[in-house]
Amino acid sequence: MPSRRDLLVGVSAFAVASAASSALAGGAKPPESKPAGDKPPESKPPAAGPFTLAPLPWGDADLAPVISQNTVSFHYGKHHQGYVNKLNELYVGNESLGSTPEAIATAAYGKADKAPLYNNAAQAWNHAFYWNSMKKNGGAVPTTGKLADAIKAGFGDAEGLKKAFKETALGQFGSGWAWLVNNGGKLSMVKTANADSPLWTGAGTPLLVIDVWEHAYYLDYQNKRSDYVAAWLDKLVNWDFAEKNFG
Ligand code: MN
Predict the structure, then answer these.
(1) Residue 49 has what pLDDT?
(2) Using CA atoms, how far apart are residues 98 and 19, in angstroms rounded to an integer?
(3) How far is the centre of ligand 1, averaged over its atoms, from the C-alpha of 213 (Å)?
(4) How far apart are the CA of 75 and the centre of ligand 1, in A?
C-alpha cells in the first residue's frame, strides 16, 4: 500500500521554505553586526515563518468562467494567504507538533487549546488540495483503469458519482468541504465542516475536494451553491490528480 506521502505527492500549492529561501526573504536571517555610526537599522517586516504559499498549479484566469479570476484572486491571495500567515504566527512555540501543515493539523485535531493553530494549518492544507483538485478543461471522469473500476463499483457510473458528489456538497450545512475518499479501494463521499479533512478525522484518504465555503463561489454564483458544484464537476475536476492519489 502506498504511503500517505506517496498518495499526496501531487499537492504542490504550499511549501515549507528552505533555509536558503528564508534567508533570501530576509525573515530568518540573523542580524549582521555593523560598526557603530553606520546608518540606522531598517525596519524589518515580521519574520516570514517556515510556511509559504506556493504558486497555483494553473493561471488565475484559467478556471473562468466556472470560477472567475476575481474569485481565484481573493480566494488564493487573501483567504489562503491569510491562513498561511496565521499559521506562521501561531506556529511559534508549537514547533514540536510537526513541520508540515498536514502534521500540525493531525496533531492539533480535537485539542481545544490548539483550535486556532488547527484551523489555520488545516485550511492551509485543504486549500492546497483544492487547487490541485481542479484544472482548466477538466471534468472528464475516467472510463478505464483502476479508478474507473472503483467509481463503477461505488457509484454505478460517472452520473452516479456526480449525483453523490452534489448531494454531499449541498448537504454540508454552512461552511465546509465535500470529499471523494478512498478506503482500501472502496470509494465514498464525505462532508466535513469548517477546516476538517478526512485525512485526520480518519474518514479515508482524500482523492478530490470541493470547497463549499461561501467565499469559494459567492462572487460568481451568489447563493447558488448547486450551480457552482454542477459546473465544477462538469468542467474543472482534475481526475489526473484523483488517479495519482488513488495510487
Ligand atoms: Mn476556501
Answers:
(1) 76
(2) 17
(3) 6
(4) 6
Q: Which amino acid is at 52?
A: T
b/e burial code for range 143-152 (CB count within 10 A of at least 16 → b): eeeebbebbe
Residue-wise pLDDT tens digits, 139-178: 999 999 999 999 999 999 999 999 999 999 999 999 999 9
Determine the distance separating the centroid of ligand 1 and the alpha carbon of 147, expressed in angstroms.
Answer: 27
Beta strands in 90-242 (DSSP E): 176-183, 186-193, 205-211
> Cα(98) to centroid of ligand 1, in Å?
23
Rounded CA separation 64/30 (Å): 44
Q: Kindly list the distances between the CA atom of residue 107 and the CA atoms of 93, 94, 95, in Å, as whole numbers in the listed order.
A: 14, 10, 11
Domains in the chain (CATH in brackets) are: 4-20+48-132 (no CATH), 146-246 (3.55.40.20)
Choose among 129, 126, 125, 120: nearest CA to 91.
Answer: 120
Q: How far apart are CA 70 and CA 239, in angstroms?
A: 24
Q: Tell me, in angstroms, the distance from the centre of ligand 1 to residue 74's CA.
A: 10
The percent helix, strand, coil of the chain (3-state, each to 5) is 50, 15, 40
Closest to 138 measured CA to CA, from 212, 218, 225, 241: 241
Beta-bridged to residue 189, according to DSSP, are: 180
